[in-house]
Amino acid sequence: VQLVESGGGLVQPGESLRLSCAASGFTFSSYYMSWYRQAPGKERELVATINTISSWTKYADSVKGRFAISRDNFRNTVYLQMNGLKPEDTAVYYCQCSLGRNNYWGQGTQVTVSS
Questions:
Q1: Helix, strand, or coil here: 87?
Q2: Coil, strand, or helix at residue 100?
């Protein structure tokens, strides 16, 4: 199983970013996918989850209405569109999936929101 995130960077408050996570080594279309984030000195938190056919999503209260998770089962990729970014969104963002009892994580991509 391999998860590779990309798309992070430094942006100003109010701007947007789209993160991507390319998955391989498993049947991507059969598993829920999630995005987590971890800010310095804080615990890792769940940001968003999407089901296998993109009919259900769930978001942390802090990002509702600003972030959107989506997936492309043909490209084995999950996305996180982040709009209206705030300084408190600064964190390393991780792609995650659970296969049975095992959790798999990407290496993370840094998002920094600062003026």
A1: helix
A2: coil
Sign of CA dihedral 79, 82, 88, 91: positive
Adjacent-strand bridge partners of 67:
82
Q: Which pLDDT tens digit goes with each residue over 69-108?
A: 999 999 999 999 999 999 999 999 999 999 989 999 999 9
Tokens of 53: 């056919």
56 burial (CB, 10 Å; 0-12 / 13-18 / 19+) is exposed
Matching residue, tokens 């084995």: 76
In the chain, the percentage of residues whose pLDDT exceeds 90 is 98
Nearest of 94, 89, 102 to residue 36 by alpha carbon: 94
State how far the Cα of 54 lies from the Cα of 73, in Å rounded to an integer.
Answer: 9
- The closest alpha carbon to 80, from 89, 70, 88, belongs to 70
Q: Is 89 helix (H, G, I), strand (E, B) or coil?
A: helix
